[in-house]
Amino acid sequence: MKMDQWTQEWIEFLWYWRRCQPLSHVGRMFQQTVYNAFSDHHTGSSHDDSKIEAWEYELFLTQCSVPYLPDHHDQRMVDALQGLRDITHFLALINKGSSGSVEDWYNFKQWLWDARTILDYITQIKPDSIAETERHLLIEAQAKQTLRNHLQDIRLANEKIKGWLQALGTEERAFQLDTLSMQLREEREHLLHLQQTLLQRRETFKESVLQTLSGGRSWHVNGDYVYIPSDHKEWCKQCDQHPSLQRVRETPFETVFQLLEADDIVNLQQQIAQIEADIQALEQAVLRRLANRLRPMTSTVETWIKWIAEWDWRWAKGRLYQQLSQETEVCWPVITQNKISIEQGTFLPLFQRLQREGGQTPYVPISLTLHKGLTTLTGSNMGGKSMALKTTASLITAAQYGLPVPAKQVQCPLFQRLTIIAGDHQTHEHGLSTFGAEITRLTDALSQGSDLLLLDELMKGTNPREGEALAYAVAEYLAQNKTCFSLLITHFSQVTAIETAVHYQVKSPTDKGKFSYTLTLRENDAPEDYAIRVAERLGLHRDIVSKAEAYLTKYLTKDTRKLK
């Protein structure tokens, strides 16, 4: 379902979306892919049976994952997901003909180790143990068989991973090329022996040179350098004449000489350099052999990555379900063709804000049913109409992604485009007033085929007489054409009199002046706004309130308020 940035911000959807957090980096990348696909690129008919079946199957898999959520009871699984390495760049290098580095292959082995843990965990899911859901699932039997096949594919993948772990040397996490080539191991042992021999010979040579120098403790040695005080001219002359010493620096305080390497030491160094080059060549040969084996399998490994990402995303949705169930009533959405039905729906951001404030202001969930065509919502200011609109949009948007929704029940179609016209859309850079921006947004929605249109007090940004005329015309168009689901909040009495529309109303205040915030279907009674009573409740001076009541009674009769 496509929706613009303004709509996302108005319904605070990202607040809800970010609560659904996969544990692995590939899971989070997959979540972003899902978000982008729905927000920007969702095309084609939303009522296509194949799309509905795909949505149903994904929800089925998500529900299957709930009893198997990785949590603190299985820390090994949590650690595997959180520590899963990113090997996408490495696979790309292999596909381009590179062999990768030792560090790349070390990371690949770590990935294999964690992937085996994760995939093995997935195979514990038992499709036949999943209880039949209360909702009607068109593909229940087929879904279970498809899942069985998928789990079998995962078991086969795990066998291949075990083979790769053995190919990379032992069942341990460590990765050492020496374990993959006997010649390489022998060369490393030879190198270590030569390095130890070189160290011993250099120490022996240094001692022999120093023993030939006189002067006792007046000089000192640091590594291959001898430091002699500058006022000891005789010692400096002696060092200058020594065949194994070379003057390299002179300061006012000391003269520095460097030990020259003996021929046998130079030969050892040359041997070491050659062996190091041989080892590097052998390492590259081993890496090429591994790369040649992996290259035909990179697409298979990418499939394994995709499986892990998808299941991590499902587990994230399952964790969100468990979290929400501890806060409020929650359910899984159901896809229908011809209606939107919300029962006891909650807008979580507001619900939690009220909870943090101590719960003194009760939160009342909404319940409503929408069909194609027009549904209006009327009632007093501060009655919760805009919140009902926001709640409806938030729940339906979450349902499109197959997320758990905070409600007793949510049924809705799969939509292509959601448009909300609410608040102030004026843009100074485009020279549009509130009214102009509203008309532009409405025109775009109607021309681009929005199949879900939510309108909050349409045409309130212009003069009341023409505003009501325009609002009535738009409302009648939506009611008669029935091309989309539309919910309109309005205070215009003529709009609420359209016979082909369904009308909801916020209940009137109680005797104590508090609102119930409950939506009820309105039959034939004219809606009451209670604006004056709301103003009084908010502390407007009593004299002003009394004058407003008198003016309403004297001048604003029912006839004068009719649309001429």
Summarize this structure briefly.
With 564 residues, this protein is an alpha/beta fold. The chain is 51% helix and 12% strand.
> How many domain regions?
3
Kindly state the mean pLDDT as a whole number?
Answer: 85
Number of E-type strands: 14
**Helical fraction:** 40-55%
| CATH class type of the largest domain | Mainly Alpha
* Structural shape: elongated
**% residues in beta strands:** 5-15%
Named at the architecture level, the CATH assignment of the largest domain is: Orthogonal Bundle
- The total count of helices amounts to 18
Quaternary structure of the protein: single chain
**Uncertain residue ranges:** 40-44, 134-138, 426-431, 510-515, 558-564
- The neighbouring-strand order within the major sheet is 10-11-12-8-13-14
Distance between the termini: 40 Å
Radius of gyration: 38 Å
Task: Assign the CATH topology of the largest domain.
Answer: MutS, DNA mismatch repair protein, Chain A, domain 3
Overview features:
single chain, alpha/beta, MutS, DNA mismatch repair protein, Chain A, domain 3, Rossmann fold, 3 domains, six-stranded mixed beta sheet, four-stranded antiparallel beta sheet, disordered C terminus
How would you summarize the topology of this molecule?
Blueprint: H1 5-10, H2 13-17, H3 25-40, H4 49-65, H5 75-82, H6 88-95, H7 102-122, H8 140-167, H9 182-211, E1 220-222, E2 225-229, H10 233-241, E3 245-250, E4 254-259, H11 263-294, H12 298-325, E5 334-335, E6 339-345, H13 348-356, E7 366-371, E8 373-378, H14 385-400, E9 409-412, E10 418-421, H15 434-447, E11 452-456, H16 464-481, E12 485-489, E13 502-506, E14 519-521, H17 531-537, H18 542-554
Parallel strand pairs: 5-9, 8-12, 8-13, 10-11, 11-12
Antiparallel strand pairs: 1-2, 2-4, 3-4, 6-7, 6-9, 13-14
